[in-house]
Structure prediction request, 140 residues.
Amino acid sequence: MSHTTVPVPPLTIYFDASCAICSAEMGALKARDTAGRLNLVDCSPADFTSGPVPREALMAAIHVVDAEGRVHVGVPAIRICRAAVGLSSGGVLLDLPLVAPLADRAYALLARNRYRIPRWLAARLAGRVAPSCNDGNCRI
Prediction:
């Protein structure tokens, strides 16, 4: 995402609801979304086809589409989601020349290994209890 590009709400967030940490984080964001700026879309069903890019890409990293149709991926997507609900986006810190590439690498490592993270740890990392799932359907 360009530093001069300001994402325009509402934001459509494509995320993996079968991932404990992803669901916990989206639940935490949605709980703070009093202005209705976030539209959460679970792209985890095997037959999911309605995203801005192929499902495989959506499952590899969080994708956010703003009201103007711009697609944001990974760390920039997380930053704009957090900012949309009034949380610190970490923008200044994440923009530092040495930190930005590290944040991108850390996110990629976390995304690749997200299914190995236990639900209790995911809940701690997201700062709240991860949503429960019944019959493969997670509720946020």
